[in-house]
Design a protein that fits this description.
Layout lengths: L5 H23 L28 H12 L2 E6 L2 E6 L2 H10 L1 H4 L27 H16 L7 H17 L9 H16 L9 H15 L3 H8 L9 H26 L9 H11 L10 H15 L1 H16 L1 H14 L15 H14 L8 E2 L4 E3 L2 E3 L4 E4 L2 H4 L42 H18 E4 L12 E2 L3 E2 L6 E4 L1
Bound molecules: protoporphyrin IX containing FE and 2-acetamido-2-deoxy-beta-D-glucopyranose (NAG).
2-acetamido-2-deoxy-beta-D-glucopyranose (NAG) binds next to α2 and α16.
């Protein structure tokens, strides 16, 4: 103790400071490379952390874009970050240079949840063998799901009927639709992973969703900061503080897997993704390279819930809000439904081709809602070049999807809800290239086909059965998004009146 007082303290402090500055210089060397993207000047150690407003990340970064251009750099403590805006830069980085830009920063909260060389899940897996194996598995399971059994479309259609029944049970009284929409979407993932749906009041299901919601919807600034700067998760104690929810979630998934193992009939085809995965684990016994391990099954299932649940349900919450605010659009969708599907038969994916207006509305909901504005961070796996700038290996890339969805050069009315963005002069559906809510390239959202199916079937099914309106006496809700982990609509209530 006595050592660190008075005169002894000074040299120690100087030595520590010099050491920190040297380490800091090493970390910031990359910035001195020729043609490194411009950006605000970082201070030692903290980089640009103090220059950013964490309560309003998208805004404070927007200022930087105006100052430095479409491709600019930031220093998040010791992590070099490059932000990409606009179709040209994003397309060049993700598609043309996909081989260099498809890694993930080693950020994952999962590192604290049993993440290891053979258990990396999908979303945050580094660009390599384990990711490729699991991505291929998820994509093909989604595609082939239900061979000889119920197809994924049948699951979604049945769930849509349950969702409508739950809306009808509100008997025209005002309610917030988010909880029911979340349950319906949750059941679609459960059908994929658990091979079953849950009643909306099933206690196990409620716990599953609650834990999942705690994980995704926590909008405290602490969580936002950690999300932006996962480096901070290394601070002792902080990780366990934000991770208690995910741990509980893993316990539930673990129980589900144990039950599958007991009830698996090897003579039958797999009932769901979990069975298919356990078959692969069996096949991979003795292969030290394989990522088909039971620990990884837990992470893959958790990833599917994490990536597929709140994204899709938040988009549907946007869809109904926008129908409240645009009764004319709602009416036109209903007219198209009546004409093409009628009032009796449930909607099918095949109907979509004959419903350009409804298809345009669903796309415009995604464009306007812009639920994942900054996508999921990428990282360069080797030195690369984008728009003439050199980006060294190990740089975190933030892809501003919002800059595409709200691009003033592409969209007639970028900041208004305007389904005509997706219709040509003849009323046919068209999709501008800047429509990239699922990102692009090798890391493109692998759930896109499922998400498209859910958005179309849930939306048309609800509008076929109900008309939606702002409850009498309540003010018009606003259509300004609320920034959290995702961008969600402000809380609102609606009345669902049977047609
Ligand atoms: C409207 C709904 C959805 C939106 C807007 C959305 C958006 C995204 C975005 C922006 C990414 C990041 C892509 C990148 O890194 O460049 C992503 C990745 C991913 N999504 Fe989705 N998603 C949705 C629904 C789903 C669904 C339903 C599932 C699966 C059930 C899913 C599974 C995944 C997975 C596994 C990844 C990681 C892919 C990888 O790293 O290789 N998503 N999604
Ligand atoms: C992303 O683009 C949007 C729309 O152009 C802009 O408002 C926002 O500030 C941008 N964010 C970043 C991080 O550049």
């Amino acid at each position: 103790m006595g050592l660190l007082t008075g005169e002894a303290l000074m040299p120690v402090a100087v030595a520590v400071a010099v050491f920190l500055l040297l380490v800091d210089l090493m970390h910031r060397r990359t910035r001195w490379a020729a043609r490194y993207p411009p950006g605000p000047v970082p201070v030692p150690v903290l980089g640009n952390l103090l220059q950013l407003d964490f309560q309003a990340m998208p805004y404070s970064l927007g200022r930087l874009r105006r100052r430095f251009g479409d491709v600019f750099s930031l220093q998040m403590a010791w992590t070099p970050v490059v932000v990409l805006n606009g179709l040209q830069a994003v397309r060049e980085a993700l598609v043309l240079r996909g081989e260099d830009t498809s890694d993930r920063p080693p950020m994952s909260v999962y590192q604290h949840l049993g993440f290891g060389p053979r258990a990396q899940g999908v979303i945050t897996a580094p660009y390599g063998h384990a990711w490729r194996e699991q991505r291929r598995f998820s994509v093909s399971t989604l595609r082939n799901f239900g061979v000889g059994k119920k197809s994924l479309e049948q699951w979604v259609t049945e769930e849509a009927a349950c969702l409508c029944a739950a809306f009808a049970a509100q008997a025209g009284r005002p309610f917030s639709p988010d909880v029911l929409l979340n349950k319906a979407v949750g059941n679609v993932i459960a059908s994929l992973t658990h091979g079953r749906r849950f009643e909306y009041d099933d206690p196990v299901f409620l716990k599953l969703l609650l834990v999942e919601a705690a994980r995704t919807e926590e909008t405290s600034s602490l969580r936002q900061v950690l999300n932006a700067f996962p480096v901070l998760l290394r601070i002792p104690g902080l990780a366990s503080k934000v991770l208690s929810g995910p741990k509980e979630f893993m316990v539930l998934i673990h129980e589900m897997v144990a039950e599958h193992r007991e009830t698996r009939d090897a003579a039958q085809p797999p009932r769901d993704l979990t069975d298919a995965f356990l078959d692969e684990v069996e096949k991979a016994k003795g292969n030290p390279e394989s990522s088909f391990t039971e620990e990884n099954l837990l992470l893959v299932v958790a990833d599917l819930f994490f990536a597929g649940l709140v994204t899709t349900s938040t988009t549907l919450v946007w869809a109904l809000l926008l129908m409240l605010l645009h009764p004319d659009v709602q009416r036109r969708v209903q007219e198209e439904i009546d004409e093409v599907i009628g009032q009796v038969r449930p909607p099918e994916m095949e109907d979509q081709a004959r419903m350009p207006f409804t298809t345009a509305v669903v796309h415009e909901v995604q464009r306007f809602g812009d639920v994942v504005p900054l996508g999921v961070p990428h990282m360069t796996s080797r030195d690369t070049e984008v728009q003439g700038f050199l980006i060294p290996k190990g740089t975190t890339l933030i892809i501003n999807l919002s800059s595409l969805l709200k691009d003033e050069a592409v969209w007639e009315q970028p900041f208004r809800f305007h389904p005509e963005h997706f219709l040509d002069a003849q009323g046919r559906f068209v999709k501008p290239e800047a429509f990239m809510p699922f990102s692009a390239g090798r890391r493109l959202c692998l759930g896109e086909p499922l998400a498209r199916m859910e958005l179309f079937l849930f939306f048309t099914c609800l509008l076929q059965r109900f008309s939606f309106s702002v409850p009498a006496g309540q003010p018009q809700p606003s259509d300004h998004g609320v920034y959290g982990l995702l961008v969600s609509p402000p809380p609102y209530q609606l009345c669902a009146v049977p047609r």
